[in-house]
Design a protein that fits this description.
The chain contains 14 helices and 19 strands. It is an alpha/beta fold. It has a domain of 289 residues: Leucine-rich repeat, LRR (right-handed beta-alpha superhelix) (Alpha-Beta Horseshoe), CATH 3.80.10.10. The termini are far apart. This is F-box/LRR-repeat protein 7.
Length: 456
Protein backbone atom coordinates (compact mmCIF):
# COMPACT_ATOMS: atom_id res chain seq x y z
CA UNK A 1 0.00 0.00 0.00
CA UNK A 2 1.08 3.61 -0.67
CA UNK A 3 0.01 6.92 0.79
CA UNK A 4 -1.08 9.63 -1.64
CA UNK A 5 -1.84 13.25 -0.88
CA UNK A 6 -4.94 14.76 -2.46
CA UNK A 7 -6.03 18.38 -2.31
CA UNK A 8 -9.69 18.69 -1.34
CA UNK A 9 -12.19 21.37 -2.40
CA UNK A 10 -11.49 23.42 0.73
CA UNK A 11 -7.76 23.42 0.11
CA UNK A 12 -6.95 20.95 2.87
CA UNK A 13 -4.37 18.29 2.10
CA UNK A 14 -5.82 14.80 2.66
CA UNK A 15 -3.65 11.70 3.04
CA UNK A 16 -5.23 8.69 1.36
CA UNK A 17 -4.06 5.08 1.37
CA UNK A 18 -4.26 3.36 -2.00
CA UNK A 19 -3.88 -0.37 -2.44
CA UNK A 20 -1.30 -1.79 -4.79
CA UNK A 21 -2.60 -2.09 -8.36
CA UNK A 22 -3.71 -5.57 -9.42
CA UNK A 23 -4.95 -7.12 -12.64
CA UNK A 24 -8.64 -7.12 -13.46
CA UNK A 25 -10.85 -8.58 -16.12
CA UNK A 26 -11.86 -5.87 -18.56
CA UNK A 27 -13.56 -6.23 -21.88
CA UNK A 28 -12.90 -3.09 -23.96
CA UNK A 29 -15.31 -1.50 -26.50
CA UNK A 30 -16.28 -2.78 -29.97
CA UNK A 31 -17.55 -6.14 -28.88
CA UNK A 32 -17.99 -9.43 -30.64
CA UNK A 33 -21.24 -11.31 -30.12
CA UNK A 34 -20.17 -12.68 -26.73
CA UNK A 35 -22.26 -12.03 -23.66
CA UNK A 36 -20.92 -11.57 -20.16
CA UNK A 37 -23.25 -11.91 -17.19
CA UNK A 38 -26.43 -11.63 -19.20
CA UNK A 39 -25.57 -8.42 -21.06
CA UNK A 40 -23.70 -7.47 -24.22
CA UNK A 41 -19.97 -7.32 -23.66
CA UNK A 42 -17.10 -5.67 -25.38
CA UNK A 43 -14.02 -7.66 -26.19
CA UNK A 44 -10.60 -7.57 -27.72
CA UNK A 45 -10.53 -10.18 -30.47
CA UNK A 46 -7.81 -11.88 -32.43
CA UNK A 47 -9.66 -13.74 -35.19
CA UNK A 48 -12.72 -15.05 -33.38
CA UNK A 49 -11.11 -15.46 -29.98
CA UNK A 50 -12.20 -13.26 -27.10
CA UNK A 51 -9.59 -12.88 -24.40
CA UNK A 52 -9.46 -11.39 -20.92
CA UNK A 53 -7.49 -8.15 -20.79
CA UNK A 54 -5.15 -7.52 -17.88
CA UNK A 55 -4.72 -3.89 -16.96
CA UNK A 56 -3.42 -1.65 -14.23
CA UNK A 57 -5.60 0.76 -12.24
CA UNK A 58 -6.41 4.18 -13.71
CA UNK A 59 -3.86 6.91 -13.04
CA UNK A 60 -6.56 9.39 -11.94
CA UNK A 61 -6.67 9.46 -8.15
CA UNK A 62 -10.02 10.99 -7.39
CA UNK A 63 -12.15 11.90 -10.38
CA UNK A 64 -13.12 10.54 -13.78
CA UNK A 65 -11.76 12.41 -16.79
CA UNK A 66 -12.48 16.14 -16.44
CA UNK A 67 -13.55 18.50 -19.15
CA UNK A 68 -10.79 21.03 -19.90
CA UNK A 69 -13.35 23.74 -20.76
CA UNK A 70 -14.85 23.92 -17.27
CA UNK A 71 -13.51 26.35 -14.66
CA UNK A 72 -11.20 24.71 -12.13
CA UNK A 73 -13.70 25.10 -9.26
CA UNK A 74 -16.40 23.29 -11.29
CA UNK A 75 -14.37 20.33 -12.53
CA UNK A 76 -15.53 17.90 -9.82
CA UNK A 77 -18.32 15.61 -11.02
CA UNK A 78 -21.49 15.68 -8.83
CA UNK A 79 -21.32 11.92 -8.41
CA UNK A 80 -18.04 12.29 -6.51
CA UNK A 81 -19.99 13.75 -3.60
CA UNK A 82 -21.52 10.32 -2.86
CA UNK A 83 -19.95 8.48 0.07
CA UNK A 84 -18.32 5.10 -0.40
CA UNK A 85 -21.23 3.13 1.02
CA UNK A 86 -23.57 4.67 -1.58
CA UNK A 87 -21.24 3.62 -4.39
CA UNK A 88 -21.08 0.11 -2.99
CA UNK A 89 -24.86 -0.08 -2.92
CA UNK A 90 -25.01 0.95 -6.59
CA UNK A 91 -22.26 -1.47 -7.58
CA UNK A 92 -24.13 -4.40 -6.04
CA UNK A 93 -26.65 -4.14 -8.91
CA UNK A 94 -24.02 -4.33 -11.69
CA UNK A 95 -23.16 -7.49 -13.63
CA UNK A 96 -19.62 -8.81 -13.63
CA UNK A 97 -18.49 -7.15 -16.85
CA UNK A 98 -19.89 -3.74 -15.88
CA UNK A 99 -18.25 -3.94 -12.48
CA UNK A 100 -14.91 -4.57 -14.17
CA UNK A 101 -15.47 -1.55 -16.41
CA UNK A 102 -16.19 0.63 -13.43
CA UNK A 103 -12.78 -0.29 -12.07
CA UNK A 104 -11.24 1.64 -15.01
CA UNK A 105 -12.92 4.96 -14.27
CA UNK A 106 -10.65 6.24 -11.53
CA UNK A 107 -8.55 5.06 -8.62
CA UNK A 108 -11.38 5.48 -6.11
CA UNK A 109 -13.78 3.44 -8.25
CA UNK A 110 -11.08 0.84 -8.75
CA UNK A 111 -10.75 0.27 -5.01
CA UNK A 112 -14.52 0.26 -4.50
CA UNK A 113 -15.22 -2.06 -7.44
CA UNK A 114 -12.91 -4.69 -5.97
CA UNK A 115 -14.46 -4.56 -2.53
CA UNK A 116 -14.81 -8.23 -1.47
CA UNK A 117 -18.47 -7.68 -0.55
CA UNK A 118 -19.27 -7.16 -4.24
CA UNK A 119 -17.74 -10.43 -5.33
CA UNK A 120 -20.02 -13.11 -3.99
CA UNK A 121 -21.04 -13.96 -7.56
CA UNK A 122 -19.29 -14.29 -10.92
CA UNK A 123 -21.43 -14.61 -14.07
CA UNK A 124 -19.75 -15.18 -17.42
CA UNK A 125 -21.70 -16.07 -20.56
CA UNK A 126 -20.92 -16.30 -24.25
CA UNK A 127 -19.71 -18.73 -26.88
CA UNK A 128 -16.50 -16.90 -27.77
CA UNK A 129 -15.42 -15.81 -24.30
CA UNK A 130 -12.11 -17.30 -23.20
CA UNK A 131 -13.72 -18.32 -19.93
CA UNK A 132 -10.80 -20.33 -18.53
CA UNK A 133 -8.58 -17.28 -18.66
CA UNK A 134 -11.34 -15.03 -17.33
CA UNK A 135 -11.84 -17.25 -14.29
CA UNK A 136 -8.10 -17.39 -13.67
CA UNK A 137 -7.72 -13.59 -13.83
CA UNK A 138 -10.75 -12.92 -11.63
CA UNK A 139 -9.91 -15.46 -8.95
CA UNK A 140 -6.29 -14.28 -8.88
CA UNK A 141 -7.46 -10.74 -8.21
CA UNK A 142 -9.99 -11.86 -5.58
CA UNK A 143 -7.30 -13.90 -3.83
CA UNK A 144 -5.03 -10.89 -3.47
CA UNK A 145 -5.74 -10.29 0.21
CA UNK A 146 -6.00 -13.99 1.11
CA UNK A 147 -3.33 -15.76 -0.98
CA UNK A 148 -4.63 -18.65 -3.10
CA UNK A 149 -8.04 -18.62 -1.40
CA UNK A 150 -11.14 -16.55 -2.14
CA UNK A 151 -13.39 -16.69 0.91
CA UNK A 152 -16.15 -14.43 -0.44
CA UNK A 153 -17.08 -16.10 -3.74
CA UNK A 154 -20.21 -18.25 -3.33
CA UNK A 155 -21.71 -18.41 -6.84
CA UNK A 156 -20.14 -19.08 -10.23
CA UNK A 157 -22.37 -19.09 -13.33
CA UNK A 158 -20.67 -19.87 -16.65
CA UNK A 159 -23.65 -21.39 -18.46
CA UNK A 160 -23.35 -21.38 -22.24
CA UNK A 161 -19.59 -20.83 -22.21
CA UNK A 162 -18.78 -23.66 -24.57
CA UNK A 163 -15.06 -22.94 -24.33
CA UNK A 164 -15.01 -23.78 -20.64
CA UNK A 165 -12.76 -26.76 -19.99
CA UNK A 166 -11.68 -28.75 -16.96
CA UNK A 167 -8.89 -26.23 -16.48
CA UNK A 168 -11.40 -23.48 -15.65
CA UNK A 169 -13.20 -25.67 -13.10
CA UNK A 170 -9.87 -26.66 -11.54
CA UNK A 171 -9.25 -22.97 -10.94
CA UNK A 172 -12.61 -22.59 -9.20
CA UNK A 173 -12.09 -25.73 -7.13
CA UNK A 174 -8.66 -24.68 -5.92
CA UNK A 175 -9.48 -21.05 -5.11
CA UNK A 176 -13.11 -21.04 -3.95
CA UNK A 177 -13.64 -23.37 -0.96
CA UNK A 178 -16.79 -21.47 0.08
CA UNK A 179 -18.57 -22.07 -3.24
CA UNK A 180 -22.27 -22.83 -2.81
CA UNK A 181 -23.64 -22.61 -6.35
CA UNK A 182 -22.11 -23.68 -9.67
CA UNK A 183 -23.85 -23.54 -13.06
CA UNK A 184 -22.03 -24.88 -16.12
CA UNK A 185 -25.06 -25.68 -18.30
CA UNK A 186 -24.13 -26.34 -21.93
CA UNK A 187 -20.39 -26.60 -21.25
CA UNK A 188 -19.91 -29.90 -23.03
CA UNK A 189 -16.11 -29.97 -22.57
CA UNK A 190 -16.42 -30.47 -18.81
CA UNK A 191 -15.67 -34.01 -17.60
CA UNK A 192 -16.15 -36.13 -14.49
CA UNK A 193 -12.64 -35.28 -13.27
CA UNK A 194 -13.35 -31.55 -13.05
CA UNK A 195 -16.67 -32.12 -11.30
CA UNK A 196 -14.93 -34.41 -8.83
CA UNK A 197 -12.43 -31.66 -8.01
CA UNK A 198 -15.21 -29.16 -7.34
CA UNK A 199 -17.37 -31.34 -5.11
CA UNK A 200 -14.39 -32.67 -3.16
CA UNK A 201 -12.81 -29.25 -2.56
CA UNK A 202 -16.02 -27.25 -2.04
CA UNK A 203 -17.81 -28.93 0.89
CA UNK A 204 -20.56 -26.29 1.03
CA UNK A 205 -21.71 -26.75 -2.59
CA UNK A 206 -25.51 -27.03 -2.59
CA UNK A 207 -26.60 -26.15 -6.15
CA UNK A 208 -25.01 -27.82 -9.19
CA UNK A 209 -26.25 -27.44 -12.77
CA UNK A 210 -24.37 -29.61 -15.30
CA UNK A 211 -27.23 -29.85 -17.81
CA UNK A 212 -25.97 -30.39 -21.32
CA UNK A 213 -22.56 -31.60 -20.11
CA UNK A 214 -22.61 -34.83 -22.08
CA UNK A 215 -19.29 -36.07 -20.63
CA UNK A 216 -20.53 -35.95 -17.04
CA UNK A 217 -21.79 -39.34 -15.91
CA UNK A 218 -21.18 -39.22 -12.16
CA UNK A 219 -21.08 -36.91 -9.12
CA UNK A 220 -19.07 -38.45 -6.29
CA UNK A 221 -16.26 -38.10 -3.76
CA UNK A 222 -14.32 -40.91 -5.40
CA UNK A 223 -12.59 -40.89 -8.75
CA UNK A 224 -13.71 -44.45 -9.42
CA UNK A 225 -17.26 -44.26 -10.78
CA UNK A 226 -17.92 -47.88 -9.85
CA UNK A 227 -17.42 -47.18 -6.13
CA UNK A 228 -20.91 -46.72 -4.67
CA UNK A 229 -20.12 -45.91 -1.05
CA UNK A 230 -17.71 -43.20 -0.03
CA UNK A 231 -14.56 -44.48 1.68
CA UNK A 232 -14.12 -41.12 3.39
CA UNK A 233 -15.61 -42.20 6.72
CA UNK A 234 -19.16 -41.62 5.62
CA UNK A 235 -18.54 -38.09 4.31
CA UNK A 236 -21.29 -36.97 1.91
CA UNK A 237 -21.73 -34.27 -0.67
CA UNK A 238 -24.01 -31.47 0.52
CA UNK A 239 -25.67 -30.92 -2.89
CA UNK A 240 -29.43 -30.41 -2.64
CA UNK A 241 -30.17 -29.20 -6.18
CA UNK A 242 -28.78 -31.21 -9.11
CA UNK A 243 -29.70 -30.68 -12.76
CA UNK A 244 -28.34 -33.32 -15.16
CA UNK A 245 -30.70 -32.62 -18.03
CA UNK A 246 -29.30 -33.85 -21.37
CA UNK A 247 -26.48 -35.79 -19.73
CA UNK A 248 -27.07 -38.51 -22.30
CA UNK A 249 -24.33 -40.83 -21.04
CA UNK A 250 -25.76 -41.12 -17.52
CA UNK A 251 -26.70 -44.71 -16.71
CA UNK A 252 -28.12 -46.57 -13.71
CA UNK A 253 -24.59 -47.19 -12.45
CA UNK A 254 -23.85 -43.48 -12.37
CA UNK A 255 -27.19 -42.64 -10.74
CA UNK A 256 -26.50 -45.27 -8.09
CA UNK A 257 -23.19 -43.58 -7.26
CA UNK A 258 -24.74 -40.11 -7.28
CA UNK A 259 -27.53 -41.18 -4.93
CA UNK A 260 -25.08 -42.88 -2.54
CA UNK A 261 -22.95 -39.72 -2.26
CA UNK A 262 -25.62 -37.00 -2.51
CA UNK A 263 -28.07 -38.21 0.10
CA UNK A 264 -29.37 -34.70 0.84
CA UNK A 265 -30.86 -34.21 -2.64
CA UNK A 266 -34.22 -32.43 -2.71
CA UNK A 267 -34.33 -31.33 -6.37
CA UNK A 268 -33.19 -33.68 -9.14
CA UNK A 269 -33.74 -33.17 -12.87
CA UNK A 270 -32.86 -36.04 -15.23
CA UNK A 271 -34.63 -34.88 -18.40
CA UNK A 272 -33.58 -36.77 -21.52
CA UNK A 273 -31.17 -39.04 -19.66
CA UNK A 274 -32.26 -41.69 -22.09
CA UNK A 275 -30.23 -44.60 -20.69
CA UNK A 276 -31.84 -44.59 -17.26
CA UNK A 277 -34.20 -47.41 -16.30
CA UNK A 278 -36.46 -48.28 -13.36
CA UNK A 279 -33.45 -49.82 -11.58
CA UNK A 280 -31.77 -46.42 -11.30
CA UNK A 281 -34.88 -44.94 -9.67
CA UNK A 282 -34.84 -47.74 -7.10
CA UNK A 283 -31.34 -46.70 -5.99
CA UNK A 284 -32.39 -43.06 -5.91
CA UNK A 285 -35.29 -43.67 -3.53
CA UNK A 286 -33.14 -45.85 -1.24
CA UNK A 287 -30.43 -43.23 -0.69
CA UNK A 288 -32.31 -39.96 -1.23
CA UNK A 289 -35.59 -40.09 0.68
CA UNK A 290 -35.91 -36.28 0.85
CA UNK A 291 -36.45 -35.66 -2.87
CA UNK A 292 -39.22 -33.09 -3.36
CA UNK A 293 -38.87 -32.37 -7.09
CA UNK A 294 -38.04 -35.01 -9.68
CA UNK A 295 -38.06 -34.98 -13.46
CA UNK A 296 -37.50 -38.06 -15.61
CA UNK A 297 -39.23 -36.67 -18.68
CA UNK A 298 -38.23 -38.20 -22.02
CA UNK A 299 -36.60 -41.18 -20.28
CA UNK A 300 -38.15 -43.77 -22.52
CA UNK A 301 -37.21 -46.81 -20.40
CA UNK A 302 -39.04 -45.58 -17.28
CA UNK A 303 -42.23 -47.57 -16.73
CA UNK A 304 -44.91 -48.21 -14.10
CA UNK A 305 -42.32 -50.12 -12.03
CA UNK A 306 -40.27 -46.92 -11.82
CA UNK A 307 -43.31 -44.96 -10.63
CA UNK A 308 -43.90 -47.60 -7.98
CA UNK A 309 -40.41 -46.84 -6.65
CA UNK A 310 -40.96 -43.07 -6.85
CA UNK A 311 -44.21 -43.48 -4.90
CA UNK A 312 -42.10 -44.57 -1.91
CA UNK A 313 -41.15 -40.90 -1.49
CA UNK A 314 -44.75 -40.51 -0.31
CA UNK A 315 -45.84 -37.13 1.03
CA UNK A 316 -42.44 -35.52 0.49
CA UNK A 317 -42.84 -35.43 -3.29
CA UNK A 318 -44.25 -32.12 -4.58
CA UNK A 319 -43.16 -31.97 -8.24
CA UNK A 320 -43.03 -34.82 -10.75
CA UNK A 321 -42.43 -34.77 -14.49
CA UNK A 322 -42.89 -38.00 -16.47
CA UNK A 323 -43.56 -36.34 -19.81
CA UNK A 324 -43.16 -38.55 -22.89
CA UNK A 325 -42.46 -41.68 -20.85
CA UNK A 326 -44.38 -43.94 -23.21
CA UNK A 327 -44.32 -47.01 -20.96
CA UNK A 328 -46.31 -45.35 -18.17
CA UNK A 329 -50.00 -46.21 -17.79
CA UNK A 330 -52.81 -45.78 -15.26
CA UNK A 331 -51.14 -48.39 -13.03
CA UNK A 332 -48.10 -46.22 -12.37
CA UNK A 333 -50.15 -43.04 -11.94
CA UNK A 334 -52.33 -44.90 -9.43
CA UNK A 335 -49.26 -45.59 -7.27
CA UNK A 336 -48.35 -41.89 -7.32
CA UNK A 337 -51.91 -40.81 -6.53
CA UNK A 338 -52.23 -43.23 -3.63
CA UNK A 339 -48.97 -42.51 -1.80
CA UNK A 340 -47.89 -39.01 -2.94
CA UNK A 341 -51.05 -37.23 -1.90
CA UNK A 342 -49.30 -33.90 -1.34
CA UNK A 343 -48.28 -33.60 -4.97
CA UNK A 344 -48.59 -30.05 -6.36
CA UNK A 345 -47.32 -30.43 -9.93
CA UNK A 346 -47.58 -33.30 -12.41
CA UNK A 347 -46.44 -33.27 -16.01
CA UNK A 348 -47.69 -36.37 -17.83
CA UNK A 349 -47.67 -34.88 -21.33
CA UNK A 350 -47.35 -37.51 -24.02
CA UNK A 351 -48.08 -40.47 -21.72
CA UNK A 352 -50.39 -42.09 -24.22
CA UNK A 353 -51.27 -44.98 -21.90
CA UNK A 354 -52.96 -42.61 -19.42
CA UNK A 355 -56.78 -42.76 -19.42
CA UNK A 356 -59.72 -41.32 -17.50
CA UNK A 357 -59.22 -43.92 -14.76
CA UNK A 358 -55.74 -42.60 -14.00
CA UNK A 359 -57.04 -39.02 -13.93
CA UNK A 360 -59.82 -40.09 -11.56
CA UNK A 361 -57.36 -41.62 -9.08
CA UNK A 362 -55.22 -38.53 -9.31
CA UNK A 363 -58.13 -36.14 -8.75
CA UNK A 364 -59.55 -38.03 -5.76
CA UNK A 365 -56.25 -38.44 -3.91
CA UNK A 366 -54.07 -35.43 -4.80
CA UNK A 367 -56.43 -32.73 -3.57
CA UNK A 368 -53.66 -30.10 -3.42
CA UNK A 369 -52.77 -30.44 -7.08
CA UNK A 370 -52.15 -27.00 -8.61
CA UNK A 371 -50.64 -27.73 -12.02
CA UNK A 372 -51.43 -30.59 -14.38
CA UNK A 373 -50.22 -31.22 -17.93
CA UNK A 374 -51.97 -34.09 -19.72
CA UNK A 375 -51.47 -32.82 -23.25
CA UNK A 376 -51.16 -35.38 -26.04
CA UNK A 377 -52.97 -38.03 -23.97
CA UNK A 378 -55.52 -39.22 -26.55
CA UNK A 379 -57.36 -41.54 -24.13
CA UNK A 380 -58.29 -38.75 -21.67
CA UNK A 381 -61.83 -37.55 -22.34
CA UNK A 382 -64.52 -35.35 -20.79
CA UNK A 383 -65.19 -38.03 -18.14
CA UNK A 384 -61.68 -37.56 -16.76
CA UNK A 385 -62.06 -33.78 -16.78
CA UNK A 386 -65.31 -34.05 -14.82
CA UNK A 387 -63.57 -36.02 -12.06
CA UNK A 388 -60.77 -33.47 -12.08
CA UNK A 389 -63.18 -30.56 -11.84
CA UNK A 390 -65.18 -32.09 -8.97
CA UNK A 391 -62.12 -32.71 -6.78
CA UNK A 392 -59.23 -30.41 -7.76
CA UNK A 393 -60.52 -27.05 -6.56
CA UNK A 394 -56.96 -25.70 -6.13
CA UNK A 395 -56.06 -26.23 -9.78
CA UNK A 396 -54.40 -23.16 -11.30
CA UNK A 397 -52.71 -24.45 -14.47
CA UNK A 398 -54.11 -27.06 -16.85
CA UNK A 399 -52.75 -28.12 -20.22
CA UNK A 400 -54.93 -30.16 -22.57
CA UNK A 401 -52.93 -29.46 -25.70
CA UNK A 402 -53.65 -31.90 -28.53
CA UNK A 403 -56.11 -33.96 -26.46
CA UNK A 404 -58.30 -35.36 -29.23
CA UNK A 405 -61.08 -36.70 -27.00
CA UNK A 406 -61.77 -33.45 -25.11
CA UNK A 407 -64.85 -31.44 -26.11
CA UNK A 408 -66.41 -28.19 -25.02
CA UNK A 409 -68.59 -29.96 -22.44
CA UNK A 410 -65.60 -31.13 -20.41
CA UNK A 411 -64.04 -27.70 -20.63
CA UNK A 412 -67.17 -26.03 -19.29
CA UNK A 413 -67.29 -28.40 -16.31
CA UNK A 414 -63.72 -27.44 -15.42
CA UNK A 415 -64.43 -23.74 -15.72
CA UNK A 416 -67.57 -24.00 -13.59
CA UNK A 417 -65.70 -25.59 -10.68
CA UNK A 418 -62.08 -24.43 -10.83
CA UNK A 419 -62.53 -20.70 -10.25
CA UNK A 420 -58.83 -20.10 -9.50
CA UNK A 421 -57.69 -21.33 -12.90
CA UNK A 422 -54.98 -19.00 -14.21
CA UNK A 423 -53.69 -20.79 -17.31
CA UNK A 424 -55.52 -23.10 -19.70
CA UNK A 425 -53.88 -24.56 -22.80
CA UNK A 426 -56.28 -25.99 -25.38
CA UNK A 427 -54.10 -25.55 -28.45
CA UNK A 428 -54.78 -28.01 -31.26
CA UNK A 429 -58.08 -29.02 -29.62
CA UNK A 430 -61.34 -28.74 -31.51
CA UNK A 431 -62.98 -26.34 -29.07
CA UNK A 432 -66.17 -24.44 -29.96
CA UNK A 433 -66.18 -20.72 -29.50
CA UNK A 434 -68.96 -20.92 -26.90
CA UNK A 435 -66.84 -23.12 -24.61
CA UNK A 436 -63.92 -20.69 -24.69
CA UNK A 437 -66.24 -17.77 -23.89
CA UNK A 438 -67.72 -19.78 -21.02
CA UNK A 439 -64.24 -20.26 -19.55
CA UNK A 440 -63.54 -16.56 -19.90
CA UNK A 441 -66.72 -15.61 -18.04
CA UNK A 442 -66.21 -17.98 -15.12
CA UNK A 443 -62.41 -17.75 -14.74
CA UNK A 444 -61.74 -14.04 -14.92
CA UNK A 445 -57.98 -14.27 -14.40
CA UNK A 446 -57.42 -17.22 -16.71
CA UNK A 447 -55.09 -16.90 -19.69
CA UNK A 448 -56.34 -19.18 -22.48
CA UNK A 449 -53.84 -20.52 -25.01
CA UNK A 450 -55.80 -21.66 -28.05
CA UNK A 451 -55.75 -21.97 -31.83
CA UNK A 452 -59.28 -20.71 -32.56
CA UNK A 453 -58.89 -17.58 -34.72
CA UNK A 454 -62.41 -16.42 -33.89
CA UNK A 455 -61.67 -16.12 -30.16
CA UNK A 456 -59.65 -13.21 -28.83
Amino acid sequence: ETETSVKGNNGVIIMRTVSTPSPALILPPRSSPGVLNGSSTSSSTFGTETIAMVHTPPTSLTHPQRSLRQPRDQQGAPIDILPDHAFLQIFTHLPTNQLCRCARVCRRWYNLAWDPRLWRTIRLMGDVLHVDRALRVLTRRLCQDTPNVCLTLETVVVSGCRRLTDRGLYTVAQCCPELRRLEVAGCYNVSNEAVFEVVSRCPNLEHLDVSGCSKVTCISLTRDVSVKLSPLHGQQISIRYLDMTDCFALEDEGLHTIAAHCTQLTHLYLRRCVRLTDEGLRFLVIYCPSVRELSVSDCRFISDFGLREIAKLEGRLRYLSIAHCGRITDVGVRYIAKYCNRLRYLNARGCEGLTDHGIEHLAKNCLKLKSLDIGKCPLVSDAGLEQLALNSFNLKRLSLKSCESITGRGLQVVAANCFDLQLLNVQDCDMPLEALRFVKRHCKRCVIEHTNPAFF
